């Protein structure tokens, strides 16, 4: 099996996205990027809006057809795990705690714009609040990793 570097994959994905954006005249909102929190919200809201006839909020780019970034990332990760023999089903110690913490993370990401990719894009647009958010995310990751690693040691 041929190995493809992350650089080549990123370049192909970026150029493909730019071409598709030009061909289909898609104009995503500024700093939308590949925000997992926002794309998940838009996918769920699109499904609910079409199934139940509601009008839950979504980014304008997601209204005609859902943005399937999350589905693509999930399927890609699954294929990569199978291809490299790393797929294993693991039981978590506290599934309810994991669900609650995941729920809180995704909601705070939506509330505060806490997706690192979106926050990075907003920082590049010159948003000072996004810069503070990006620094806060980095500090949180460092402190969380430090706490976790000390606890495991």
Automatic annotation (TrEMBL):
The chain crosses the membrane at residues 65-84, 96-117, 129-149. It comes from the Archaea. Keywords: Membrane, Transmembrane, Transmembrane helix. InterPro entries: Sulf_transp_TsuA/YedE (IPR007272). This is YeeE/YedE family protein. It comes from Methanopyrus kandleri. The lineage of its organism: Archaea, Methanobacteriati, Methanobacteriota, Methanomada group, Methanopyri.
């Amino acid at each position: 099996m041929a190995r493809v570097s992350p650089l080549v994959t990123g370049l192909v994905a970026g150029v493909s996205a730019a071409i598709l954006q030009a061909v289909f005249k898609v104009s995503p909102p500024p700093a939308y990027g590949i925000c997992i929190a926002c794309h998940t919200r838009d996918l769920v809201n699109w499904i609910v809006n079409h199934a139940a006839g509601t009008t839950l909020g979504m980014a304008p780019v997601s209204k005609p057809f859902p943005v399937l970034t999350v589905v693509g990332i999930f399927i890609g990760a699954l294929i990569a795990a199978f291809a490299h023999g790393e797929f294993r089903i693991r039981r978590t110690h506290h599934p309810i705690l994991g669900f609650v913490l995941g729920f809180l993370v995704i909601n705070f990401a939506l509330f505060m714009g806490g997706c690192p990719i979106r926050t990075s894009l907003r920082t590049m647009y010159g948003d000072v609040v996004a810069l503070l958010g990006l620094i806060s995310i980095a500090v949180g990751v460092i402190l969380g990793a430090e706490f976790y690693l000390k606890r495991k040691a």
